[in-house]
Amino acid sequence: MKIKSVNAPETEAPSGGYSQAVEVTGATRTLYISGQIPVDKNGNTPKDFSDQARLAWKNVIHQLEAADMTLDNVVKHTTFLSSREFCDENSRIRQEILGHRKPALTVVIAGIYDESWLLEIEVIAAD
Fold first, then answer.
1. Which of the 8 DSSP states describes residue 11?
2. Apex CA 30: angle with CA 29 and CA 35, to 5°?
3. Does residue 107 fall inside a structural domain?
4. Structural domain boundaries, residue 31
5. Is 13 within a domain?
6. pTM passes above 0.90
7. What is the pLDDT of residues 29-50, one digit of tens each?
8. pLDDT beyond 80 at 16
9. Is residue 70 part of a domain?
10. Nearest-angstrom CA–CA distance, 107 and 41
């Protein structure tokens, strides 16, 4: 499988570690990960955004591993934030976790299902 970042020169260049589009060729499997929430297996939710974001990404990684995939397989993710106040911190943590990877992404400011959750992350992966 090959993952290729696509950024049309006629559009604004992406900033913050993502691609405007991602082309996947030669994939044999696609994994759709439901929104991962900032809750651990014991039902605990951290209070601050940074800990919640890291836990939600940890849960994404666990789902990827359960399908024998890694962050290298992520082609698109959507993050739902409870407030705009978390935009910069969310971007920083996402870039820290994804490193050199630049999947397509969408960030949505939305009411989250549980008021104690500050974000939720869903992912599409392929291999």
1. S
2. 150
3. yes
4. 2-7+26-126
5. no
6. yes
7. 999 999 999 999 999 999 999 9
8. no
9. yes
10. 25
**pLDDT at residue 82, as a whole number:** 98
The CATH number of residue 88's host domain is: 3.30.1330.40
CA distance 7 to 20: 5
- Decide if 14 is inside a domain: no
| pLDDT at residue 13 in the model | 86
The alpha carbon of residue 118 and the mean position of all alpha carbons in its chain are separated, in whole angstroms, by 14
pLDDT digits (tens, 9 = 90+) for 63-85: 999 999 999 999 999 999 999 99
Number of domains in the chain: 1
Q: Are 54 and 86 in contact (CB under 8 A)?
A: no
Cβ–Cβ < 8 Å for 115, 83: no
CA 79 – CA 121 distance, rounded (Å): 4
Q: Is the pLDDT of residue 14 over 90?
A: no
The closest alpha carbon to 99, from 20, 36, 17, 19, belongs to 17
Residue closest to 63 by CA, chosen among 29, 33, 93: 33
**105 and 78 in contact (C-beta within 8 Å)?**
yes
Quick one: DSSP state of residue 47? S
Average pLDDT over residues 5-27: 89
Amino acid, res. 62: H
